[in-house]
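hey
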């Protein structure tokens, strides 16, 4: 090998050296970051993404743009990010179903949640609620169960995510009742369904319904985990009346396309954790029932696989399929 070729080889090695990669990560970001939200505006994913994006914009000197890409049970948004350049500038605000359930709902899943994405961090564990219109004659969970038993197959419930739809299946099974799912495309539509009495009750987080709960238009019957819900301080846990129900939370997390440099992933994780630790952001998120929660990339990767294993059995039992 002549001297010229040796020099070119050395230059090539230096260009891809860890030091050079670290320098690029140190400069990140140099332009706008896009967070794709696979739901319409107004839902938990959208609300949290905008909180994080605003704080990251303030701290990083670059805008963070939120792009709503709803449809196909979050598949459209997930596909978009999976195919994006692995440079840290296109991220996905994934919901639990995106990464742990969709692969069991499609015969040929259009993306691989384990191999197409690089986990960044968990961002929140929202609180799931059982909600009715305040004008309903259903005052308690026991009232709902009694009414459903008296009218098998007549009551219907709204749900806007795979998790809340599966919650309805688990609730029916545990309570020994038969109610009918009315599927919606996100929390904003679910809240509208309850408000217009298009459904008898719903399973959902509080972000899209909070003002209606506080304004007295909605009545919350129960919560699905033991954390406090300040707008309804004495809210009972679902297991009070349905002992066979497991605790259920809908969680959110940020992922990037597979192949995004680990140094960029770590920098994004640190920025998101910093944003969610801000007292004003945390207070606003908590008040919306979003409850920020962060993790390291490795912890989030392990959490995703554990949750996928948990829900695979439930999806199989329901026979739910989307193709």
């Amino acid at each position: 090998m002549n001297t010229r070729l040796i020099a070119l080889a050395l230059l090539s090695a230096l260009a891809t050296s860890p030091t050079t990669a670290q320098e690029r990560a140190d400069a990140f970001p140099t332009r706008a970051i896009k967070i794709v939200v696979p739901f319409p505006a107004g839902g938990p994913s959208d609300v949290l993404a905008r909180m994080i994006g605003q704080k990251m914009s303030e701290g990083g000197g670059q805008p963070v743009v939120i792009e709503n890409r709803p449809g196909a049970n979050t598949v459209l948004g997930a596909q978009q990010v999976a195919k994006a350049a692995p440079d840290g500038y296109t991220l996905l605000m994934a919901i639990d179903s995106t990464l742990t359930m969709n692969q069991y709902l499609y015969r040929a899943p259009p993306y691989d949640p384990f191999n197409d994405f690089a986990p960044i961090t968990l961002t929140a564990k929202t609180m799931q609620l059982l909600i009715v219109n305040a004008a309903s004659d259903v005052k308690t969970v026991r009232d709902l169960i009694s009414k459903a038993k008296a009218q098998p197959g007549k009551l219907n419930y709204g749900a806007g995510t795979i998790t809340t739809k599966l919650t309805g299946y688990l609730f029916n099974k545990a309570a020994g009742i038969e109610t009918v799912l009315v599927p919606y495309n996100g929390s904003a539509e679910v809240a509208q369904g309850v408000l217009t009495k298009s459904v008898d009750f719903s399973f959902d987080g509080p972000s899209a319904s909070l003002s209606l709960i506080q304004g007295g238009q909605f009545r919350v019957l129960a919560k699905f985990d033991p954390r406090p819900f300040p707008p309804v301080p004495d809210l009972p846990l679902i297991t009070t009346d349905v002992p066979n129900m497991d605790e259920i939370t809908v969680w959110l997390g940020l992922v990037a396309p597979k192949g995004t440099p680990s140094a960029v992933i770590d920098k994004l994780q640190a920025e998101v954790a910093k944003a969610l630790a801000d007292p004003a952001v945390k207070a606003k998120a908590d008040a919306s029932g979003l409850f920020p929660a962060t993790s390291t990339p490795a912890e989030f990767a392990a959490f995703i696989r554990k949750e996928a294993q948990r829900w695979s059995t439930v999806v199989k039992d329901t026979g739910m399929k989307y193709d």
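The longest strand covers residues 117-127. Residues 19 and 25 are 10 Å apart (CA to CA).
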